[in-house]
Amino acid sequence: MSARSKARKAALDLLYEGDIRKTSPISILNQRSGDLEFVIRDFTKELVQGVDENRRKIDELITTYSQGWDMDRMPVIDRNILRLAIYEILWSKDVPPAVAIDEAIELAQTLSTDDSSKYINGVLSKIIEIKADLVF
User: Fold this and answer.
1) H-type helices in 38-96, by residue range?
2) Mean pLDDT over residues 113-125, rounded?
3) How far, in whole angstroms, is CA 15 from its chain's centroid?
4) Which of 39, 86, 91, 122 has its CA 20 to 30 A from that of 4?
C-alpha cells in the first residue's frame, strides 16, 4: 500500500470516527496529532481538513446524486468514502479524478460490500461528469 493510500485510510478512519461520535474530525485529528503513538501524515491532515471545510457542499452533492439513499440511512463508511473522494475530485489539485475513484473503490471493497463499491463508483462517476458545471 502506498503512502498516499495509507494517508487516505487514516483520513477515512478520522472521518468515520467523527461521524460515529457526532463530533468534528478536526478535533479528533488534533487529539491524535499530540499523541506520540499516532503518526499523522500531512496528506491525511489535508484530506480531513478539506472534507471538513467543504462538508456542506460535499453532502449536498451526495444527497443529490445518491439515488435511492438518504444520507442518514447510508452506511457510515460509504458516506465517508464518498466525502473523501468527492473532496479529492473537486478540490485536490494533485490527485487525478481517476485515482480518487480507484482509491475509493478499493476502500469500499476492503471495508464495505461489493455492492457499496459499485454504488460509490456510480456516484463518483456522476460527480466527474458534472464537475465542469459546478460552481462553489
Assistant:
1) 42-53, 55-65, 76-91
2) 93
3) 8
4) 122
Contact in structure between 33 and 40 (CB atoms under 8 Å) = yes
Query: What whole-number distance in Å separates Cα of residue 61 and Cα of residue 59?
Result: 5
Place of cell 463530533: 23
- Burial-class residue 69 by CB neighbours within 10 Å (0-12, 13-18, 19+): middle
Residue 39 clears pLDDT 90, i.e. is over it = no
What is the CA 54 to chain-centroid distance, rounded? 11
The string of pLDDT tens digits covering residues 42-99 is: 999 999 999 999 999 999 999 999 887 788 889 999 999 999 999 999 999 999 999 9
**Domains parsed from the chain with CATH numbers:** 3-131 (1.10.940.10)
Nearest Cα residue to 100 out of 81, 114, 126: 81
Band of the pLDDT at 117, cuts 50, 70, 90?
very high
- Residue 29 has φ and ψ, to the nearest 5°, of -60, -45
